Amino acid sequence: MYPNKFENLILKFQNLPGVGRKTAERYAFETLNWEQQKKEEFVNALQVLIDGVDTCKVCGNLSDGDICSICSDQNRDHTLLCVVQSPKDILAIESIQEYKGVYHVLNGVINTSKGILPEDINIDSLVDRINKDEINEVILALDPTVEGETTSLYIEKLIGKDVLVTRLAYGIPMGGHLDYTDSLTLLKAFQGRK
């Protein structure tokens, strides 16, 4: 139907999550119609896939250099450490503009059914960081899934009693209805009531 090169471009766009054939075609035609400079800027932006993205040597967040902007910010509370699963979680927390501490990215969670063990994620550097830095509180902000809970419990046991370990509250979302809430969420809401 289309020339091979253009068909290949469509197929590459289809590799993106949530992009079907029609959307991929629209993306391909859109990029085809861009001015040369815009095409070059797009290709240069994709070069990061080959060159790799820098990660912060302190927390594991995405970075433009050795240390990310959050870790290098002296106005943040470096005694307060929030543990997250991925860099996307940092963006979600930062969007509420309430948390002023620093982060640690695990880049995954323990999942024995998929063969992901504690040594496969960024836990050793977390423990090293807690031992060498003056961390007063570790906030475990992992997804409320079986794997997230397993990872949280594992980290809690590793940290021990020297540092305060807290978790994000679970419960009914704003605008939610009790009659549509599953029993586990309702249980967590009762357990975490204030």
Automatic annotation (TrEMBL):
Q: Check the record and name the PROSITE patterns matching this protein.
A: RECR, TOPRIM
Which superkingdom heads the taxonomic lineage of this protein's source? Answer: Bacteria
Q: Which residues form the Toprim domain?
A: 79-173
Zinc finger (C4-type) residue numbers: 56-71
Which Pfam families does this entry report, sorted A to Z?
A: RecR_C, RecR_HhH, RecR_ZnF, Toprim_4
What does the UniProt keyword field contain? Answer: DNA damage, DNA recombination, DNA repair, Metal-binding, Zinc, Zinc-finger
User: Matching SMART domains, A to Z?
Assistant: TOPRIM
Q: Name one GO biological process term.
A: DNA repair
Q: Which InterPro entries match?
A: DNA_Rcmb_RecR, Rcmb_RecR, Rcmb_RecR_Znf, TOPRIM_dom, TOPRIM_RecR
Q: What would be an example GO MF term here?
A: DNA binding
Q: Which NCBIfam families match?
A: recR
Similarity comment: Belongs to the RecR family.
What this chain does, per the record? May play a role in DNA repair. It seems to be involved in an RecBC-independent recombinational process of DNA repair. It may act with RecF and RecO.
* Name assigned to this protein: Recombination protein RecR
Designated gene of the protein: recR
